[in-house]
């Protein structure tokens, strides 16, 4: 399995000079080239429809706060073509959660099965609070994706996590996507998940979605999280009390040496992996 790293939602929020060393955020998307199951995406970033109408797809308040860059060449659909890959070969999309900067490109891959935690899909379709009604934008799945939900309250233990679920393809009874595991980690949203990918070299790559926003929250030798991102993380979390514990669990995993842990938005983590895997970031 080859892993590509793409930035599919560059954001320049207000106060970005105090954001991080790079002064912007990324939308870190994984592209997995598999032998048996075509292309698999972990998150999508924002897509072509979203780029054309950011406020309509993401909401005016979100756009004003995060400053997403409306560049069609940064969509996953476009970047796959630039890599010599066919967007039509995307057969599976695994989303960490259904916020617009993570699922705003689902419509670009209408034939793909979309894997999402059952609790997350319920939160999006049946929001309980005003905050959930505002964060989930139904336009992103108006095309009627083929949903496949998973649960993470049961399964095998995995590197300190109580339950891990291999990703079922749905193509044949009992068939799973080898080397792709989902782990529930609510806090940012009710059904937020991590996606772990077996790199084949004895280690794992863990896409932590929005379980943290600044690399220093988990990688403690990298300084301190900025006050701006810490405040933003708390503001958008559905359960603020879970954040510190989630950070610690991921810090323990990262320090164990068994996995490379990255979040969706830290540009330093993204750049290091994009360079290592010889997939150049856009721009």
Q: How many helical stretches?
A: 10
Order of helices and strands: EEEHHHHEHEHHEEEEEEHHEH
How would you sum up the global shape? globular
Average the pLDDT over all residues and give the rounded result: 91
Instruction: Indicate the percent of residues in helices.
Output: 25-40%
Query: What structural class do helix, strand and pairing data support?
Result: alpha/beta
Low-confidence stretches: 278-283
| Rg (C-alpha, Å) | 17 Å
Characterize the biggest β-sheet.
6 strands, mixed
Number of strands: 12
Strand order of the largest sheet: 1-2-3-4-5-6
Can you tell me about this structure?
This protein has helices at residues 48-52, 54-58, 60-66, 76-82, 100-103, 118-125, 130-135, 227-236, 243-255, 267-276, and strands at residues 2-7, 28-33, 39-42, 90-94, 113-117, 146-150, 156-158, 161-168, 176-184, 193-198, 204-207, 259-262. The chain is of the alpha/beta class and 283 residues long. The chain has a 6-stranded mixed β-sheet. The protein has a 6-stranded mixed β-sheet with strand order 7-8-9-10-11-12, covered by helices on one side. The relative contact order is 0.17. Mean pLDDT is 91; it is low at 278-283.
């Amino acid at each position: 399995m080859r892993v590509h790293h793409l930035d599919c939602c560059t954001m320049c929020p207000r106060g970005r000079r105090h954001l991080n060393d790079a002064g912007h955020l990324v939308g870190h998307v994984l592209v997995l080239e598999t032998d048996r199951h075509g292309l698999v995406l972990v998150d999508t970033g924002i897509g072509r429809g979203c780029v054309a109408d950011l406020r309509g797809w993401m909401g005016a308040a979100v756009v004003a706060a995060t400053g997403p860059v409306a560049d069609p060449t940064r969509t996953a659909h476009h970047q796959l073509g630039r890599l010599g890959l066919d967007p039509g070969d995307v057969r599976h999309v695994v989303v960490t959660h259904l916020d617009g900067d993570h699922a705003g490109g689902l419509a670009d891959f209408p034939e793909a099965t979309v894997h999402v935690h059952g609790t997350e899909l319920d939160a999006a379709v049946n929001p309980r609070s005003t905050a959930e009604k505002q964060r989930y934008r139904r336009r992103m799945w108006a095309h009627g994706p083929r949903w496949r939900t998973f649960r993470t309250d049961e399964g095998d233990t995995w590197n300190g996590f109580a339950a891990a679920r291999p990703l079922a393809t749905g193509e044949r009874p009992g068939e799973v996507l080898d080397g792709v595991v989902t782990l529930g980690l609510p806090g940012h949203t009710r059904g937020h998940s991590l996606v772990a990918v077996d790199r084949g070299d004895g280690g794992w790559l863990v896409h932590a979605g929005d379980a943290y926003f600044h690399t220093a929250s988990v990688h403690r030798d990298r300084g301190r999280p900025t006050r701006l991102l810490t405040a933003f993380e708390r503001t958008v979390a559905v359960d603020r009390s879970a954040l510190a514990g989630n950070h610690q669990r991921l810090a323990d995993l990262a320090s164990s040496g068994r996995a490379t842990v990255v979040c969706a938005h830290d540009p330093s983590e993204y750049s290091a992996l994009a360079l290592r895997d010889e997939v150049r970031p856009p721009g």
